[in-house]
Amino acid sequence: MTDxxxxxxxxxxxxxxxxxxxxxxIFCVGRNFADHAREMGATAPASKAERGMPVFFHKPADAxxxxxxxxxxxxxxxxxxxxxxxxxALGSDAPTGPLARDDAQALVIAYGVGLDLTRRDLQAxxxxxxxxWDTGKGFDHSAPISELVPVADVATLxxxxxxxxxxxxxxxxxxxxxxxxxxxxxxxxxxxxYALKAGDLVxxxxxxxxxxxxxxxxxxxxxxxxxxxxxxxxx
Length: 235
Prior knowledge:
This protein has 235 residues and is of the alpha+beta class. It has one domain: Fumarylacetoacetate hydrolase, domain 2 (Alpha-Beta Complex). It is 14% helix and 33% strand. Strand 13 and strand 14 form a beta hairpin. The chain is globular. The protein starts with 11 loop residues before the first strand and ends with a strand. The relative contact order is 0.26.
């Protein structure tokens, strides 16, 4: 059967050392740093035993922006916010059914750093009415990411930190040791809800310090010692 139109190209992220990573889905984790949860007016768990369930949402695969390209300011908002995050790339399919936490790490092929850009005013308005806030998160160009770095080239993940500088000023900084749910935790929980497959990206949540971006702002996001993402917000 002939397609009615030409199929769009699969979005791809560059991989350090060569090759590209075809993106299937983008999963995102909300409130995964206690300081950011408190910043957003939520109660942060006092211990892992009290953390409850993680919060998940999605972005479209073609929301990625790669190659340190400019990021256009999105329509429909007057309050675009940055959220710097660890990005986890899956290179294997999970088995059917819930994934055992001890088996989760084997799915991970690479890491990177990204920005979960958020139309905060749209998100806040939806929250206030008890409505879904997809329009605040899942829009065009809302997921700039660095090149992906193979797992073999990354030392112990927990020893690294996330940093975001805007116009040369540090806005966000947080250790990956402070994640409420670490990578195996999140993959285990996601597998209860979705079939995880090669090509999936997981944005792991942001530390405190989220704030507005405006046209003309430049940013440098880093997974310290691993990967760097830079760019500029255009009008």
